[in-house]
UniProtKB/TrEMBL annotation:
It is found in: Membrane. Keywords: Membrane, Oxidoreductase, Transmembrane, Transmembrane helix. One of its GO terms (molecular function) is oxidoreductase activity. PANTHER family: FORMATE HYDROGENLYASE SUBUNIT 4, FORMATE HYDROGENLYASE SUBUNIT 4-RELATED. This is Respiratory chain complex I subunit 1 family protein. Its EC number is 1.-.-.-. Its main location: membrane. It comes from Pseudodesulfovibrio karagichevae. It is a multi-pass membrane protein. The chain crosses the membrane at residues 6-28, 78-100, 106-128, 140-159, 185-206, 227-251, 263-281, 293-315.
Length: 316
């Protein structure tokens, strides 16, 4: 029992969550910014710019509005970062990490995955800023929208994997029967997940809660110093969670050679997934209205996920 707790603590604080997920997420965010700059014919920042931003913010003063709920204002980024770190520890990495024993259920992950968005909303509502309130309402609406296709994708994968709810068991099923990425029945679900990623990360079409031209960063407008750094760290870890989950659900392909081969291979798959979803969306699309984004998720990603769910059910 004690060893299980130590195992879980190491997973959440060091690897594959914790320090590893944070640093990998920050580097990936730097690569994303460079890729978007190149696609838009700009020079762009250095790849380690997100790391420099965290270091710089950590040295700044924390300013809290006089009318803010100070307790909620301080707790929001901490809750969001902790939720992201727990999610990062729960998602298995094929050939590297099998997840925390008994905790890798897709529904557990679905509930915990909402914590960063809830923390974002809590911070915006606690700031007493009207821009934060608008960003809070937008984040709440878009979260309800993208949670529907996410749930449908998870159910489709679980049904296709012979009713397995454990992520480790889903990976084992694909290892034995082939990745779902090459399964025609699961192709619509994979496309739905590709559309879900920029939605949950607020990229491109779905950069709505923090729209700089409209609500001036929305929920994080009043944040500064280490508290803003925590929100940036939360976003970096959350990016790795959605990428790790996408690889685990659709392409957990193993290579011979153990962890030292499969970990770089996994990161390469995550990088390709990020460039295909987040970077391409950010570089090539504008921004939808919140009602358009809500309708988009109900119409397209949800419908695609339902197609895979129905096909998996009838072919189970």
């Amino acid at each position: 029992m004690v060893n299980d707790y130590i195992h879980a603590a190491v997973a959440m604080l060091i690897f594959p969550g914790g320090f590893f997920a944070l640093m990998t997420g920050l580097v990936f965010k730097g690569i994303d910014r460079v890729a978007v700059a190149k696609l838009q014919r700009r020079i762009g920042p250095p790849i380690l710019q997100p790391v420099f931003d965290i270091i710089k913010l950590s040295t700044k003063e924390i300013l809290i509005p006089e009318t803010a709920n100070k307790t909620a204002f301080r707790l929001a980024p901490v809750i969001g970062l902790c939720g992201s770190l727990v999610c990062a520890a729960l998602v298995p990495i094929a050939g590297v990490w099998s997840g925390i024993p008994g905790a890798g259920d897709i529904f557990v992950l679905l509930y915990l995955f909402a914590l960063p968005a809830l923390a974002f909303m809590l911070g915006g509502s606690a700031s007493s800023s009207p821009f934060g309130a608008i960003g809070f309402s937008r984040e709440m609406i878009i979260m309800f929208a993208y949670e529907i296709p996410l749930l449908s994708v998870l159910l489709a994968v679980a049904v296709r994997a012979d009713w397995q709810l454990s992520l480790d068991a889903i990976i084992a099923y694909q290892t034995a029967n082939g990745p779902f990425l090459f399964d025609p029945i699961m192709a619509p679900a994979f496309i739905a997940y590709l559309l879900f990623i920029p939605g949950t990360m607020g990229a491109g079409l779905f950069d709505i809660p923090e729209a700089e031209e409209e609500v001036i960063e929305g929920p994080v407008l009043e944040y500064s110093g280490p508290l803003l750094a925590l929100f940036n760290m939360m976003s970096a870890v959350k990016l790795m969670v959605v990428l790790n989950l996408g690889v685990a659900l659709f392409f957990p392909l193993l290579l011979p050679g153990g962890i030292w081969v499969n970990l770089p291979f996994h990161l390469f798959k995550c990088l390709v997934l990020m460039l295909a979803s987040v970077s391409l969306f950010r570089a090539s699309t504008g921004r939808l209205r919140i009602d358009q984004a809500f309708t988009f998720f109900l119409k397209y990603p949800s419908s695609l996920a339902y197609v895979s769910l129905g096909g998996a059910y009838f072919l189970r």
